[in-house]
# Entry
Amino acid sequence: MLLSEYDLKQILLIEKKIFWFEINKLDLPEIICDLEGLINVLQYVSDFWKEEFRSEINSLEIINDSIEDGSISKWKGNYQEDIHNGIKKLKKMIISMLEEYLGRSDSNILEKAIIGDTCWLICPKCNDAWESDSLTAMVVCPKCCRALHNPRATQYK
# Structure
C-alpha cells in the first residue's frame, strides 16, 4: 500500500485522535466527529478500507445517539465495553495500515533518515532527532510527519 504524504499525515492524526480519546482528552461525540471528518479527506486510501472504518465509526455513533436520547438503558450488553471494542478495532486498522506502509519501501519518497548514533535517527527535512530501533523499510519523523527511508533497513546495509 502506498500513501500520499497528505494521507499519511491524516492517518497519523487519526492515530493521535484515538490516543487522545483513550486518555480521556476527547469525548465520544468529538472522536466520532473528528474521525468522520478525517476519513472523508483521505485521497488515495481504498474505498473498501474507508467503508470498513466508517462502519466502526457508525457503531460508535449508534451508541452515542442512544446515550444522548436516553435509550442507553435498553442497550443489550455493556455499551462501555462496546465503545472500548470499537475504538480498539479502529486503532488496529490504523496500526495495520501504518505497519503495511512502513514495511515496504516507497519509491515516491526520496529522502532517507540520517543515523545519529546506535539508537537515534535524524530527519533531513526538519532536523528533529528521535529514538528508533526500527528495522522497517520506512520511518516517520515524529515532528514533521514525513515518511523517510530507514537507513537501518536491510536494503540500505
User: Anything to note?
Assistant: Helices lie at 5-22, 28-41, 47-68, 79-103. The radius of gyration is 18 Å.
